[in-house]
Write a structure and sequence with these properties.
Length: 155
């Protein structure tokens, strides 16, 4: 069985689930999903990304989104939704919320599960990507397995 560690920051859409569950053809896939709740330290970067994408209304609504501790409940719901969607497609899936030191946790999970790859499924983050500070860029130097970066779809 092929094991993928899937890092997400929002619930998986049906398009995302179809894509990640078919990456390896008909081979059985097991997913370990790591969900990071929104942190208030990222608010400015998200607003800049929204402006760069021409999504001014979204930039203005950044202050309305739950942050920090208030984001834990929505993150747990997003994780459960994503795990169920992967299982419905026939994949084995377990997961957890990662609030602190996500890259250290990622490395530990890769080692514990003997994962074959890491998939980072995220919205575009232009500022972080430009400076190679996004999850995928940083993970490539830490985990010792291939890291695939995919852009998440919005419903």
């Amino acid at each position: 069985m092929f094991t993928s560690v899937l890092m997400i920051e929002q619930p998986l859409t049906p398009v995302d689930v179809d894509f990640v569950t078919t990456l390896h053809g008909d081979d059985p896939v097991s997913f370990v999903v790591l969900m990071q709740p929104r942190g208030d330290q990222d608010r400015l970067l998200r607003a800049i990304d929204d402006v760069a994408l021409g999504e001014l209304p979204e930039a203005l609504r950044e202050a309305d989104e739950p942050e920090g501790e208030a984001a834990r409940g929505p993150a747990e719901n997003a994780l459960e939704h994503s795990l169920q969607a992967l299982r419905t497609k026939g994949a084995t899936a377990v997961g957890q919320i990662v609030e602190h030191h996500p890259l250290d946790k990622l490395k530990a999970v890769v080692e514990e599960t003997n994962a074959d790859e890491v998939i980072v499924l995220t919205a575009p983050h232009f500022v972080e990507e430009f400076f190679h500070r996004d999850w995928a860029s940083r993970a490539r130097h830490k985990v010792g397995v291939p890291v695939l970066k995919l852009f998440a779809h919005n419903e």
